[in-house]
Amino acid sequence: MNEREWLQSANQFVNTIARGAAVFCIAALAACGEPAQEPVENVETAPSLIERPTLPAIWETSIGSGEFLDLAFVSSGGGRLYIAGLTADGDLSIYDLDGAPIAQSRDSLDVSKIAAGAPLLGPSTAIAPGLSENGDLYALVIDLSVGGVGEILVDAGGGYTAICAGDMSDDALPMALGRSDEVLVGALRIDGDTATFERQESYDLDGVVTTCAWNSDQGLAAAGDRVFRIADGAVEIALTAPASPLSLELGMTEAASVAVWTDEEGDVLVANVAEPTPEPKRFGVAPGMSVGAPDPVAVIAIQSGRFGPDYEAGVVAATGLYADGAPRITYVDLASLIDAPD
Question: What's this model's pTM, rounded to 2 decimal places?
Answer without folding.
Answer: 0.82
